[in-house]
Design a protein that fits this description.
With 321 residues, the chain is mostly helical. Helix content is 70%, strand content 0%.
Length: 321
Amino acid sequence: MVTPAIEVSPWNPDLRELRADCYIAQGDLFKAVGDLRPTTKLRNDNTNAYHKLSKLHYEMGEADESLVQIRECLKLDPDHEECFKFYKKVKKLVKQMQSTQDLINEGRYEDCVNKASQMLKTEPSTFVYVHRAKSHICHCYSQAKNVDKAMQSCKEVLELDENNVDAVCDLAEAYISNDQFEEAINEYQRAQNLDGNSQRAQDGLNKAQKLEKQSKKRDYYKILGVRRNANKRAITQAYRKLAVKWHPDKYKGDEERKKAEKMFIDIAAAKEVLSDPEKRAKFDNGEDPLDPEAQQGQGPFWNQGFNPFGQGGFQFKFHFN
């Protein structure tokens, strides 16, 4: 009934507002916006239309456009109580959203979690913003290698949206940080099933498969007894403790000495890789920088292997560094 009347009288603001209300009741906010927008010009000082437009854009997840519309309301009436109250909320949320994204871009993941948590306090109920804030928290915990909180927060996101490819990938990366490579492989395959064109899922799957294969060989983190998110200080401390324990000079019998030499070589190799950012990055991506087979074609010295004792027998001078 309303649409034919609008076709006859397209510039009647009452009819457009009525149809907009119908669209809102049907959940078609986009069409409601299309009908309300002309009414801002068809009525003088139509603050109510700007207020309603702002709320509709907000519900659709378009916070920036919501801010534009609510400012138009305040231009017409700076003392409009409802518009001013909503303006403060939207402005605060937009700023928090931008700050959170900036922190992600800068790699400041702990700060990102704090800022995204502030988003949830500002808007604790509207789905699109709750979903976005929790997705940021999931991603930032995962990137910070805070395994337990990453798994918890990413699973919360997937309860809201089981088809969220980024959350699935973030969960997979948390599994990698916890040395759960089979679980990571399963999650990346799940992400591929959701989006066959996801480069992140493909790259992650390749990485997880390499790490799963690598874990059956020499795992430098396990050798030193540290987690994958260990910092350089923790790595050095673990190395010093184990180096003292397994230094070959402490062992006299042939068998014990051979075992100690092997352990010490592994310990020194682990420190060599995990203390060097470039080598550690290679290892974290499933490539052993000290494995001659993995380094074929990268230079003649890779085939010599790693030996902290040098080439002339056991003439190793022990240093902590």
